[in-house]
Amino acid sequence: MPHLDPRDRLIVALDLPTVAEAEAMVERIGDAATFYKVGMELTYGGGLDLVRRLTAAGKKVFLDLKLHDIPTTVEKATAQVAGLGATFLTVHAFPQTMKAAVKGKGTSDLRILAVTVMTSYDDADLAEAGYAFNVRDLVARRALQARDARVDGLVLSPEEVGEMRRLLGPDMALVTPGIRPAGAGHGDQKRVTTPADAVRAGADHLVVGRPITQAADPRAAAEAVVREIASA
Ligand code: C5P
After folding, report:
1. Catalytic residues
2. How far is residue 174's CA from residue 160's CA, in Å, rounded to a whole number?
3. What is the C-alpha separation between 156 and 149, in angstroms, rounded?
4. DSSP three-state, residue 202
5. pTM here?
6. Which domain, by its residues, includes 38?
7. Region 148-176: what's the mean pLDDT?
8. Which residues line the pocket of ligand 1, CB cutoff 6 A?
9. Total tally of structural domains belonging to the chain
10. pLDDT exceeds 80 at position 137
11. Cβ neighbours, 10 Å, residue 186
């Protein structure tokens, strides 16, 4: 990975129900953050125009749509996303889907991130869904398939980052949610790590939502995370 400014390593998750609330949050955070994640909720609530406005205003956007469909559909959908100016787009880590997304981004600056195994799945859930692999082995298998498909990076839980960095080497972007600054509430996240520990384990970008968006002072909370990234 090229050297990244600590501020560009923080991705603030705009998990807010309306575009108006999301825009107000971006305004409050100001220049303390440069990178925002727009997920399915906000996208289906009219967020694609927000993506265009954010990128036009010089912010970076991680569009977390977790695409998975037949290759032609994934390729064409990815090409549309490339036209929005987003920096990251997620797809599920199925070989056909990943190859189609890489084809669809063409020569644009869009970078494809693969979601290996959803963290809501445990070994029993995989067995129920018909998989012969446990979570750990399936994550590793799909990570290598992602690299072979020339995907740009992976979204991983903090506890997988160190092992995947060792497995994949330095080139793929590793992006992790589940970040809680020391002293912050965990919310519904069970397995969390601090910003400094995630960076030390090899994460390039940290996705942080509620510790910033629900803070009394979101700007100060974002600045504190960036300071912690810089210190690691
Ligand atoms: O508010 P919080 O910091 O927990 O938000 C984390 C963000 O990362 C949310 O948008 C959530 O959907 C996303 N995410 C996650 N865990 C995963 C995958 C995505 O928390 N395994």
Report:
1. 66
2. 10
3. 17
4. coil
5. 0.95
6. 6-231
7. 94
8. 13, 15, 37, 39, 119, 157, 177-178, 187, 189, 207-211
9. 1
10. yes
11. 12
* Residue tagged 């970040």 (tokens): 179
> Rounded distance, CA 76 to CA 101, Å?
8
Q: Which residues of 196-225 are buried (b: 16+ CB within 10 A; e: fewer)?
A: bbbbebbbbbbbbbbbbbebeebbebbbbb
Q: Report the half-sphere exposure of 133 (CA within 13 A, side-chain side).
A: 11
Q: Half-sphere exposure of residue 87, counting CA atoms within 13 Å on the CB side?
A: 20
Domain CATH number, residue 47: 3.20.20.70
Residue pair 153/130 in contact (Cβ under 8 Å)? The answer is no
Amino acid found at 74: V
Tokens matching residue 132: 């012969």
Averaged pLDDT for residues 162-190:
88
Cα separation, 80 vs 28, in Å, equals: 30
Structural domain contains residue 1: no
User: CA angle at residue 85 from 203 to 55, to 5 degrees?
Assistant: 85
**All residues at 6 or more sequence positions from 36 whose CB lies less than 8 Å from its CB, including other chains:** 11, 12, 13, 14, 26, 54, 59, 60, 61, 62
Best residue for ligand 1 mutational test, from 15, 35, 36, 42 (most atoms within 8 Å of Cβ): 15
Is the pLDDT at 17 greater than 80? The verdict is yes
d(CA 33, CA 222): 7
190-232 pLDDT tens trace: 778 999 999 999 999 999 999 999 999 999 999 999 999 999 9
Q: How sure is the predictor about 2, in pLDDT bands with cuts at 50, 70 and 90?
A: low
User: Which of these, 104, 123, 102, lies nearest to 113 by C-alpha position?
Assistant: 102
